[in-house]
Structure formats: structure tokens, C-alpha cells
Amino acid sequence: MAALVVALVLGLGVAGPTAPVAIAQAAEELARYRSEFFGKLREALAGQRDVQFVGDRFVIQSELLFRSGAAGLQPGGERLLSTIAKQLIEFSGRLPRNTNLILQVEGHTDSTPINNALYPSNWELSTARAVAVVKFLHSAGVPNERLVAAGYSQYQPLSTIDHARNRRIELKLISR
């Protein structure tokens, strides 16, 4: 079932005797592009503190990008995102037109409630941070059709003890 979804997402026909072959090729292609992209990004960010590769995503601690309770990017965060944007632009240019891979930027907060004029809840803060990253990547030249922002608030914590770990931006390459 998942392979069929991948084939449909990638716009491949699934009728006829070659459907299983096309589905398998689409799944392999998707895995290859993800692996290549994250490999290049890992090399570009080698030695960067508070940036980790976890499973199929990059995790950036919010303190690198934002001040506490804010969604405006700090200069150090912009430099980090510039490195990521360069890799994304290079990678996007090599993708076949019918490959619908996008970078999902996910904002996460800790469980400490926020309530101020700009962000009445952690939902607004996490989403505003994800949107700030997407806007920066776009301003650096990453095509809009390769970006999406999502806010998860405090509802997908990495730790129940270390609340700082939960304040993060995650980058994940997904199919549209």
C-alpha cells in the first residue's frame, strides 16, 4: 500500500504489468534522494553544535535560531539556515520535474505555557517559528513549492525531563 501511495505521489502510472516495477523504482528513487540530500546536509553542518541528524530528520535546537518566546531569527540562526538553503537549492536543481519532494519545517515548543500579545499559546509560537524558517529559506532562493511549515506546539516532546530538548525546529524531506 505504501509503495502505491509513493507511485501516485510521484505521478507514476500504476496500470499494466509493469506497475510493480514502477512502484518499486519510485520507492527506491525517493529513498535515494532522501539519503543523498541528508548526506550532503550532514557534511555541510558537520561540527555544528546543537544540530543533530535523528532518523529521517535534522533537529535544530531553537536557541540557535530564536530568542526565548520569540520567532525572529537571530544572526547565528540565519547563517546556519543559509548553509541549509545552499544545499537545498543545489539539491532541488537536480530533482526530476515529476519528483514531488518537499522540505517540511516543523516548529516544536516545550510545555511551559506562553501567553503574550504576539503568541497567545505554544501553537502560535511553534507555527510562527516554522514559518520564519520557511520565509528565510525562500528569501535565500529555495523554491516555495519545495517548502511547507508545520507547528506542533508541545505535543511531540523528545524528553519529559529535559524541556530544552523539546524546543526545536525539525527539517524533514517528505513527498507531497
Topology (elements, then pairings):
Layout: H1 2-9, H2 19-44, E1 51-54, E2 57-61, H3 62-65, H4 75-94, E3 101-108, H5 122-139, E4 147-151, H6 163-166, E5 168-175
Parallel strand pairs: 3-4
Antiparallel strand pairs: 1-2, 2-5, 3-5
Model description:
This protein is α+β, with helices and mostly antiparallel strands and 176 residues long. It has helices at residues 2-9, 19-44, 62-65, 75-94, 122-139, 163-166, and strands at residues 51-54, 57-61, 101-108, 147-151, 168-175. Strand 3 (101-108), helix 5 and strand 4 form a beta-alpha-beta unit. Helix 1 crosses helix 2 (19-44) and helix 2 (19-44) packs antiparallel against helix 4 (75-94). The two termini are 16 Å apart. 30% of the residues are buried.
Report the radius of gyration as a whole number of Å: 18 Å
Spatial separation of the terminal alpha carbons: 16 Å
Which class of secondary structure composition applies to the elements?
alpha+beta
% residues in beta strands: 15-25%
Main beta-sheet strand count, sense and barrel state: 5 strands, mixed
Query: What are the segments in which pLDDT stays under 50 over at least 5 consecutive residues?
Result: 1-15
Number of helices, counting only DSSP H or I runs of 4 residues or more: 6
- The oligomeric state is single chain
Mean pLDDT: 83
> Quick one: overall form?
globular
Trace the largest sheet across and list its strands: 1-2-5-3-4
What is the chain-wise order of helices and strands? HHEEHHEHEHE
| DSSP strand tally | 5
Q: Residue share in helices? A: 40-55%
